[in-house]
Amino acid sequence: RALDISVVGATGAVGTALIKLLEKSEIAINRLRLFSCSSGARQFKFRDQTYLVEALRDIGDIADTKTDIAFFCAGGDVSAKWGAPFASQGTLVIDTSNSFRMDPDVPLIVPQVNARSLTVRPPSGIVANPDCSTIQLVRALKPLIATFDIHQIILTTYQAASGMGLLGCKELLNGAEAVLEGSAGPPAERFPVPLAFNVIPQIGEISREGVALEERKLVQESRKIFGMPHLQLTATCVRVPVKTGHSEAVYVEFDDHVRLEQVRELLANEPGVRLYADEIRDGYPTPRFLGDPADVHVGRVRVNPENPRGLWMWVVADNLQVGAALNALLIAQLAIANNLIGEHEDCQVRGVEFSRSF
Ligand code: 2RA
Questions:
Q1: So what's the pLDDT on residue 61?
Q2: Ranges of H-type helices in the chain
Q3: At 108, phi and psi to the nearest 5?
Q4: pTM of the entire predicted model
Q5: Catalytic annotation present for 237
Q6: Does the interface predicted TM-score (ipTM) exceed 0.90?
Q7: Which of 37, 169, 237, 246 is catalytic?
Q8: What integer pLDDT is reported at residue 347 of this predicted model?
Q9: Is 37 assigned a catalytic role?
């Protein structure tokens, strides 16, 4: 049947990307509701109809928000305030923020990796989308973790400004223009220090132990998605002056020696992973010149000449699509295929098949 769907945060970077993907998707939509917290009245054209964005604060009666699915793309504060009230109406909430990810009643889903964790409707009525840097990491790691025993994973991320939304992009562009015109540029607002022509080794607040929030998220979320509470993973997360596309230099140390050919074969056969196997012929992925924004792009795959148990790879993905909007849409498609929408609480897994789920 055609579904009623709402998008909360419709005018933001992720919300806008999601609406475009939703429009092209095969999901039959009866009624679309678009909500925003910040902007004034705005219209969206969607499948030949025009929709007005509604202000979230104008909702009088929470029962009026009931739809089959609500995508939350407006950041943690909005999700924390409105996520549970929306879910309490029977709406399946798919949340892209950090508000519920580690809640045991909320599955944390990357459909290509752990679709099996979404075979029943969660009691909370909420499904969480992991952080963008986690999603591309676990999609690249999945075939390796499924095949080999892992000793530890060490990575550095190079994250784009759009991870901080449209305002993050604007701040980067304004800052770059100002520096090129010879001024110091505006003070930083979305970032700890100005990002233009700079590199910032901090994403999110730093704990007393010296670990930034984004680094803690990568560890906790990867462990939850793989169901491996003792997975050894440590990261340094860095913001770079790139508009869109997160990059990660990932070092995986296995328990045993690793053969490059086997790793290449596993990555090349992983659906949704594009392997750049030969640097001379294929080059390597970079965020500005990324190919298909639905893929995770992996290059510079090499065994450490000093340690035959160690492997490096360079992983790049579109943080707004793979890292947020597309993953959220795939979660919705999985929930629909598994009959988790509306009154149907019993579930038969069918329709969407992803290989070797955890
Ligand atoms: C960032 N990963 O790039 C965050 C967004 N959720 O800032």
A1: 86
A2: 13-24, 76-87, 111-114, 132-147, 165-180, 213-226, 260-268, 279-282, 326-337
A3: -110, 110
A4: 0.94
A5: no
A6: yes
A7: 246
A8: 35
A9: no
